[in-house]
Design a protein that fits this description.
Layout lengths: L14 E4 L2 H29 L6 H25 L6 E5 L2 E5 L6 E4 L3 E7 L6 E6 L6 E2 L9 E2 L2 E5 L7 H11 L5
Helix pairs in contact: 1-2
Length: 179
C-alpha cells in the first residue's frame, strides 16, 4: 500500500487504486500535443490570410515547437502533481479517496448513499454520494478542498490502475445495492 496514504484497518482486505505517473504523463502529452498542433495550424492559417507565407526556417521552428512545447508542458505538469495524483482505497471500514491535487476524504460504508461512474475513457469519474455531511471525514494533508458537485464527491479514475471496471466490481462487492 501507499505509505503516504496509510489505510485504517487490516491491509489484507484493502484494495488500492492509483494513477500511474507514466500513464498520466503520456495521456497529458498526447492531449497537449493535439491542442498545440491545432493552435499552431490556426496560427499559420491566420498568418497566411494576412499574406505571410512560412519559409524553410519557419517550418523548422514550427516542427520544433510541435515536439518541444507538449513535452515540456506535460513534464512540468507531472512534476508539479508528482505526489498529488488521485488514489482510492477500499477496505472493510469504508472508502478513502482523493482527486488529483485535492485532500483526501474518508467515508464509512454506512455513510455511502450511492456511487456511480460518469464520462468514459481517460475522463471517467467516480461520483460518491454520502448519506449526509456528517458521514464524511476530510483527511489532513496538502492540497485543495476535495472535489465536489452538489452533495457528491468526484474522483478522476479513468487512468487509475487497475481500471474503472475493476474499481466498479470492488465497490459492487462491498455494497451491491448501492452501485
Amino acid at each position: 500500500m501507499d505509505p503516504e496514504h496509510p489505510v485504517i484497518g487490516p491491509t489484507e482486505d484493502t484494495a488500492g487504486f492509483f494513477q500511474p505517473r507514466g500513464q498520466v504523463f503520456v495521456t497529458m502529452l498526447w492531449v497537449i500535443a493535439i491542442a498545440w498542433a491545432v493552435c499552431r495550424g490556426l496560427w499559420i492559417l491566420i498568418a497566411a490570410a494576412f499574406g505571410s507565407r512560412p519559409g524553410a526556417d519557419d517550418i523548422a521552428t514550427i516542427a520544433e515547437s510541435l515536439i518541444l512545447v507538449p513535452t515540456v508542458t506535460a513534464s512540468v505538469i507531472i512534476l508539479v502533481a508528482w505526489n498529488r495524483l488521485g488514489w482510492l482505497h477500499s477496505s472493510m471500514h469504508g472508502l478513502e479517496f482523493a482527486a488529483t491535487g485535492r485532500r483526501g476524504v474518508a467515508i464509512p460504508w454506512s455513510g455511502v448513499a450511492a456511487v456511480a461512474l460518469r464520462h468514459r475513457g481517460v475522463f471517467t469519474e467516480l461520483v460518491v454520494t454520502p448519506t449526509g455531511p456528517g458521514a464524511v471525514t476530510e483527511l489532513p494533508g496538502p492540497g485543495r478542498q476535495p472535489r465536489r458537485r452538489g452533495d457528491s464527491y468526484l474522483v478522476d479514475i479513468g487512468l487509475m490502475s487497475p481500471g474503472p471496471r475493476t474499481l466498479l466490481a470492488e465497490l459492487h462487492r462491498r455494497m451491491p445495492s448501492k452501485v
